[in-house]
């Protein structure tokens, strides 16, 4: 129960920080003096929110990473090995597992790029360098979006594997 409460709190902080990132990173319009002044005026709050986001994202990354690894190493790979050992046809399951592994690698790559961008962003003093801070927020936000897209792709592949497993299970029942 405590884990769920911590997760809900971290999710709330993350969503609030994303809203802040979206507000700060309006990349379409050129920077005006008013915009620069607003960044400077909200610098402390923005940096604090980004620091919280960085911490909560790190925790979520560890938890998600472990979950994704477990799905691969404790579920997919052993099951596929057992199916192959029993000389059953599991071509779709194997190809989906290979796609999952590729996507997991992409998730790691995207998260590493996001993490590096966030660390660089947190080093920028937004009072002294508001334009660099603004640009850093935009860069970090786009890299965070890539992490999100990686997560969605992994979830789609997990659902696909489940559907293929269910089809496979029905064919094995029919044959036996």
Can you describe this structure in just a few lines?
With 176 residues, the protein is an all-alpha fold. It has five helices and no strands. The protein has helices at residues 2-24, 33-41, 43-85, 91-123, 130-175.
Layout of helices and strands, plus pairs?
Blueprint: H1 2-24, H2 33-41, H3 43-85, H4 91-123, H5 130-175
Helix pairs in contact: 1-3, 1-5, 2-5, 3-4, 4-5
Descriptive report:
- By secondary structure, the protein is mainly alpha-helical.
- It contains 5 helices and no strands.
- It has helices at 2-24, 33-41, 43-85, 91-123, 130-175.
- Helix 1 crosses helix 5, helix 3 runs antiparallel to helix 4 and helix 4 (91-123) runs antiparallel to helix 5 (130-175).
- The longest helix has 46 residues, at 130-175.
- The radius of gyration is 21 Å and the shape is elongated.
């Amino acid at each position: 129960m405590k884990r769920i409460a911590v997760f809900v709190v971290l999710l709330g902080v993350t969503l609030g920080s994303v809203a802040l990132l979206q507000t700060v990173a309006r990349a379409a319009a050129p920077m005006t003096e008013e915009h620069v002044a607003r960044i400077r005026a909200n610098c402390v709050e923005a940096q604090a929110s980004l620091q919280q986001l960085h911490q909560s994202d790190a925790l979520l990354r560890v938890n998600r990473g472990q979950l994704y690894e477990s799905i691969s190493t404790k579920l997919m790979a052993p099951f596929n090995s057992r199916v192959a050992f029993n000389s059953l046809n599991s071509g779709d399951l194997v190809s989906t597992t290979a796609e999952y592994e590729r996507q997991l690698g992409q998730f790691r790559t995207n998260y590493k790029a996001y993490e590096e961008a966030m660390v660089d962003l947190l080093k920028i003093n937004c009072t002294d360098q508001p334009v660099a801070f603004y640009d850093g927020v935009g860069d970090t936000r786009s890299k965070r979006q890539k992490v999100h897209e990686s997560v969605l792709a992994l979830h789609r592949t997990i659902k696909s594997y489940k559907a293929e497993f269910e089809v496979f299970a029905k064919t094995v029942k029919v044959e036996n």
